[in-house]
Amino acid sequence: xxxxxxxxxxxxxxxxxxxxxxxxxxxxxxxxxxxxxxxxxxxxxxxxxxxxxxxxxxxxxxxxxxxxxxxxxxxxxxxxxxxxxxxxxxxxxxxxxxxxxxxxxxxxxxxxxxxxxxxxxxxxxxxxxxxxxxxxxxxxxxxxxxxxxxxxxxxxxxxxxxxxxxxxxxxxxxxxxxxxxxxxxxxxxxxxxxxxxxxxxxxxxxxxxxxxxxxxxxxxxxxxxxxxxxxxxxxxxxxxxxxxxxxxxxxxxxxxxxxxxxxxxxxxxxxxxxxxxxxxxxxxxxxxxxxxxxxxxxxxxxxxxxxxx
Length: 309
What we know:
Elements: E1 7-11, E2 22-28, H1 34-39, E3 47-53, H2 59-71, E4 76-81, H3 87-96, E5 102-106, E6 110-112, H4 117-126, E7 131-133, E8 136-137, H5 148-157, H6 162-165, E9 177-181, H7 182-187, H8 200-209, E10 214-216, E11 221-223, H9 229-254, H10 258-267, H11 272-284, H12 290-304
Parallel strand pairs: 2-3, 2-5, 3-4, 7-10, 8-11
Antiparallel strand pairs: 1-4, 5-9, 6-11, 7-9
Helix pairs in contact: 5-12, 9-12, 10-12, 11-12
């Protein structure tokens, strides 16, 4: 019998009695968000911060987070879970700790690009926006050879300005920098049937978009946590079941996505067990040109989705 997941809580001196308008919600799994917490320590934004250690099991990281939480001027709570719940369920738990009228989901490996980042989000919240995504960049992420592939792919498909994102608003929603009004999230939470990595945020946005407008703005944060190519491939392999779950519920939307179209095109290509590993080896080959590796990785990802289309 699996033991129930328990949580430990720690609050700083400013937490008790605070009445925040905005709740900043930060899940982490073995990442130290101390730099992000320091950047968010803005007492003018009417915000509180809740950090969730989703069963990372790293006592040193947890201790650093606890010390940072205690030192913050803004109201802050640290929640530590005894075991991992996963991306969807963990974020739903985070929201249960929030007291503000709007939630701002930020990943632990993000860093605001502007000094008034939180105040900007506070203003968007005060406007009554149901859902808004601020975008992300790699502006503060130092280039490294082992993450060159992820950088190239992210710059091409993810680091896009608001007008471009607004053309397919649900597709360009990530929990890395996402504002949600409380009543919207209480009605439409993350689907806890997702496991592992990928697609739970986009699928959530598909359901939200049927009932609420999704605003795209340029209030970006840098994604510091680029992955080496083997980690990327492993995440894509994890995401295949999640992609199938999205297709089962939203085929009419996903069918317009390049990943779906390429998977459909590859479905009829014979000898899949031969050429799919070749694509992966090429994507992981650091000596190969990065554009070629990126092309191979995109094809490899699509090949993993063949069974879902």
